Amino acid sequence: MLGATLLHGVDATKITIYPHLQCRKFHRIIYNFPHAGFHQKEDHPHLISMHRDLVCGFFLNARCMLWVNGEIHLSHKITPPFSSWRIEDLALNCSLFLVECADFQIRDYPRYSNKRGSGSRCDEPFPLGECRTFKFKLSHDATTHRTSENIFTFNDVGMTTLEHNMIRNECFWMFGGYLKHVEDTFGSTSYDVGSSVSEALSLGFDAYMGAGQGRPSSGYIAILEELHHLSILRSQRLRQMLVENSLTLLENLCM
């Protein structure tokens, strides 16, 4: 009646490749009480690690589906052992920053009932206790890199497909440090370009594969294609800087 679409069986760590969600953008993405299942006691380190992997996989996917000023809302218990998940740290590692942390109000979700979700008591509610709703936005540094004279955004690269728009934040998350290092060392005769590029690509592949189980290698190839276009833009900017510096040097010599 209100135009909503209900989908079942969606893996929260692979939502960007789900057929009905590909190329979609949202103003709000909400995940109430993520849980990896009852495999051990809640304070068991392995289960906490599974929970953290789930949340991290969700963040990495959800951030690619946000509009520019969109938000990711994640509701979570904040008492031990749930506080060991360190939600804010996971978000920060995924280039998301906290804009608000509010008390979870179940009345904000009419007809919503919290469920255990798995196990023999899967349809039963669980005690909410002290909970918060963490609200995140994309980190500015994840989509824009500032220099003293110019601003580079991924729109400058000329990407036109929605698929590349979805993946662009992950590209900069992996290679933003490498691109900044290139700019910081521009003109240095001791800079080994070959070794630097090889190391960056290797680290990028490890980061891509480590962000979620079963990720297709084709996804990393798409990221490399975007990195290629971004590198061309950066090279043009560095050449421009070289020309400007040379002209400035000549002007100073002629004075």
TrEMBL record:
Pfam families: BMT5-like (PF10354). It comes from Penstemon davidsonii. Residues 3-116 form the 25S rRNA (uridine-N(3))-methyltransferase BMT5-like domain. PANTHER family: FERREDOXIN-FOLD ANTICODON-BINDING DOMAIN-CONTAINING PROTEIN 1 (PTHR11538:SF26), PHENYLALANYL-TRNA SYNTHETASE (PTHR11538). This is 25S rRNA (uridine-N(3))-methyltransferase BMT5-like domain-containing protein. It comes from the Eukaryota.
